[in-house]
Amino acid sequence: MIHIVGFFMAIFIAATSGLGLTWLAVNLGHGFDQVRVGSWSTSPKAGTLESDPYSKAVIARSGEIPMSAGEGLALRSDRDDGGAPLTGRCTYVVKGSLPPARLWTLTAYDDAGAFRDNPAHRYSFTSSEIVRDADGSFEITVSPEVKAGNWLPVDREQSLVLVIRLYDTPASSSVSQLGTQMIPKIERKACL
Question: What domains lie within the chain, and their CATH numbers?
Fold first, then answer.
């Protein structure tokens, strides 16, 4: 009798541990092929046949349609360059330059991947509508308060995720060679 109870206890512990670790991997990550560049991360194999099972599970759970390598590259950040989580209560400056691309966008989302509601009803910037410096670099202020220049409004909710999508870019084939000088920085300025 003790052997049977021990056997079922071992199965219960193994199943609970396996399911719990799988849940954590799917809900807290983006798979094992994630590449970090500064405060940004990308999964270049997401949506391809080479993607790992956890990446496929994350995509299936979120309903996201990933960009293939031929379409471009998506960079995601939920932290500033200091490592602090992004929040709608703070003002951030996204500044720098990006690798060559036919078009790029910077969009603000919440943790669930939904647009961040704001009074201006502006959810993103595109490369064709921003004001640039003479050297081609840019500065976009992400803030709940109105700012001059390139301003991306967000509400004061606690979570914030920024996503840059580079369309038709050669960088999608050489993600590991992206340097921090080619990716914009996210600097936190002030918090409410």
Answer: 31-191 (2.60.120.600)
